[in-house]
Amino acid sequence: MSTSLLIEQIQVGAYRNFSYLVADLSTLHAAIFDPAWEIESLLSRINGQKLQLDYIINTHAHLDHIQGNIEIKRRTGAKIVMHKSSLALKDLGVSDGEQISISPKVTLKFIHTPGHSPESMCIQVNDRALITGDTLFIGECGRTDLPGGDASALFDSFEKLRRLEPSLIIYPGHDYGKTPSAALGEELKFNYTLAKRTRDEFVKFMSTP
Ligand SMILES: [Fe+2]
User: Fold this and answer.
1) I need a labelling partner for 85 at 20 to 30 A (CA). Which of 63, 111, 148, 199 fits?
2) What distance in angstroms lies between residue 196's CA and the mean position of ligand 1's atoms?
3) What DSSP string runs through 39-105?
4) Chain Cα centroid distance, residue 99
5) How far is the CA of 3 from the centre of ligand 1 (A)?
6) How far apart are CA 75 and CA 101, in angstroms?
7) Is residue 82 a contact partner of residue 90, using CB atoms and an 8 Å limit?
8) Protein residues with C-beta less than 5 angstroms from the ion ligand 1
9) Which residues of 33-62 are buried (b: 16+ CB within 10 A; e: fewer)?
10) What is the Å distance from ligand 1's center to 4 Cα?
11) Alpha carbon of 135 to ligand 1 centroid (Å)
12) Interval between CA 107 and ligand 1 midpoint (Å)
């Protein structure tokens, strides 16, 4: 079903951010996730593979994930997509559970996962991958002590992630882990931030330095 699906993980910038290029190589339609650094290099990957970039998708609106949006939009005509609660400049605001297809074979499903920030979301790519932004890193999770952060909301978001297919490959927003990606099932076993806790225990855990 998804043999023509391309998911390129690209480490960029000074904070070990990841951008992602997702495409259907049989139609050449594509989306880019969190373009914020090394824009010329991202554009040359898009142009080099003759991709038609339809969407710029942000996992959340922190500057280190969105600051390349405008330049990429100007150069490709792609539409900027974020969760509907984001106040940052966008063309399309999406809701929890909504889907966008970039081709008949590649569908993106938006899962609202507030906690790191109110507009944070994870994006499922077919039955293959979950792009998690700063909600979940490999072996870690995003902080909840920045403005808009909410540990109790992250508890609920993690409950949502626990219900997904364990074979999904987690693609995080930063390269902070031992490996750049890992299966959700592995993270549920080994990521200490996902250990089973009550809500109160989790909120306390997140507020402990
Ligand atoms: Fe962030």
Assistant:
1) 199
2) 24
3) HHHHHHHHHHTT-EEEEEE-SS--HHHHTTHHHHHHHH-PEEEEETT--S--SEEE-TT-EEEEETT
4) 14
5) 31
6) 22
7) yes
8) 62, 134
9) bbbbbbbeebbebbeeeebbbbbbbbbbbb
10) 30
11) 8
12) 24
Q: How far apart are CA 18 and CA 33, in angstroms?
A: 9
Query: Ligand 1 centroid to 77 CA: how many Å?
Result: 25
Q: Are 81 and 56 in contact (CB under 8 A)?
A: yes
Q: Kindly give the distance from the C-alpha atom of residue 130 to the centroid of ligand 1, in angstroms, as a whole number.
A: 17
Record the tokens describing residue 208, joined without a space.
């402990």
CA of 116 to the centre of ligand 1 (A): 7
Cα→Cα distances 133→1, 17, 20, 66, 140, Å: 26, 9, 10, 11, 12
Asked if residue 183 lies in contact with residue 170, where contact means CB atoms within 8 angstroms, the answer is: yes
Going by DSSP bridges, is the β-strand pair 92-94/79-83 parallel, antiparallel, or unpaired?
A: parallel
Distance between Cα 153 and ligand 1 center (Å): 15
* Phi/psi of residue 48, nearest 5 degrees: -60, -30
Q: What is the pLDDT of residues 39-92, one digit of tens each?
A: 999 999 999 999 999 999 999 999 999 999 999 999 999 999 999 999 999 999
Task: Pick the closest to residue 59 from 12, 108, 16, 3 (CA basis).
Answer: 108
Q: Token pair for residue 2? A: 């998804």
